Amino acid sequence: MAVLLIREAGQPDRRFQIKGKECIIGRDENADLVLPHTTVSRQHGKISRLSKTKAIIKNTSENNSLLINGEKIDQTEIKTKDTIQIGKFTLVYFGDSLTPMEQFFEGKALDEFPLYARTANATRDDTTFTLSAKDAEKLLKQGSLTRNARIFTADKKQQWTPEKKTISFGKNQDIPVDGWFTGGIVAVISWTGATHSIEKKSALAKVLVNGQKLSKPRDLIEGDQIQIGNSHFIYDVIR
């Protein structure tokens, strides 16, 4: 039985089992998988399981895009752990024939994820909001950052997940640091809606990004080296 892992901002990841040979995905109440949001067309996409080892997905929306692994498509074969972007939802596909390793995702067995149920505040508006491929790709990237971005110590022995929270650095803060003038909040990393940004909060403590003094808020990119006081960190994105 094939499975879709459904990712929606503000909700835990949930799984949906594809039982039939075909699975219609859309906002319509008669769809097999109902994703009730105006960024989703009434019938947005269709997955056809041709065999235990082969499945294809087709864009059935007239106005909205379908992204597979970040690329706009009309129809293509999909494989286990391919990412499907439909409106504000990100779906991860798992085929019928899975190896033992493929039955785990991000350190968790597939059957440990709760079954999908529509959120209570989901909209059922009849008007579809047209979401461009560029906007859909932007949503996909933002979702990946909030889930997969990490702040590591330089030796990679400790890590923190910023998600959409504001994380503070200081001697007794969320992420502890050493050095002079680090007793209060020295710096913070926060979510801007599109990226994680670092901002210096102390006038005296040392805050460097890639060896350069931080004088104003700066968006972080994968691999940035951060020094706060005498402590060193890495901002990275896990794959």
Task: Briefly characterize the structure.
With 239 residues, this protein is mainly beta. The chain is 7% helix and 37% strand. It contains one helix and 23 strands.
Characterise the protein shown here.
Helix content is 7%, strand content 37%. The chain is mainly beta. The strands form five sheets. It has a six-stranded antiparallel beta sheet, covered by helices on one side. Strand 22 (224-228) and strand 23 (231-237) form a beta hairpin. It is elongated, with a radius of gyration of 21 Å. The mean pLDDT is 87.
General shape: elongated
What is the number of E strands?
A: 23
Mean residue pLDDT: 87
Residue share in β-strands = 35-45%
The end-to-end span amounts to: 26 Å
- Helix percent band: under 10%
Largest sheet: 6 strands, antiparallel
Instruction: Tell me the number of helical segments per DSSP (H or I, 4 or more residues long).
Output: 1
Radius of gyration: 21 Å
Strand order within the widest beta sheet: 2-1-11-10-7-8
Run of helices and strands = EEEEEEEEEEEEEHEEEEEEEEEE
